[in-house]
Amino acid sequence: MENTVNMVETIKPFTEALTASITPGQIVALLAAVIGVGMAFVLMWFGVRKAISMFKKAVTKGKISA
């Protein structure tokens, strides 16, 4: 129990400095950026899969389809 109390007292200045320096607006901006980049990668993944599929069909069947 004493170790836990000692650890809490040791970490307390760090947590106070961290909570004082990071605002909720910054957290929301970070989450929005991560979601935006993630969506771009997902859309790119589907686009690449579609392009590969179209290329394979064009080579095997001799037709280009959308």
Major beta sheet summary: none
Termini Cα gap: 67 Å
Strand content: under 5%
Radius of gyration: 25 Å
Order of helices and strands: HH
- Classify the helix fraction into a percent range: over 70%
Quaternary structure state of the chains depicted: single chain
Q: What does the overall shape look like?
A: rod-shaped
Please provide a written account of the structure:
The longest helix has 38 residues. The mean pLDDT is 88. It is rod-shaped and about 75 Å long. The N and C termini lie far apart (67 Å). The protein has 2 helices and no strands. It is an all-alpha fold and 66 residues long. Helices cover 88% and strands 0% of the residues.
Notable traits:
mainly alpha, rod-shaped
What is the compact description of this entry?
By secondary structure, the protein is mostly helical. The protein is built from two helices and no strands. The termini are far apart.
Topology, element by element:
Layout: H1 2-21, H2 24-61
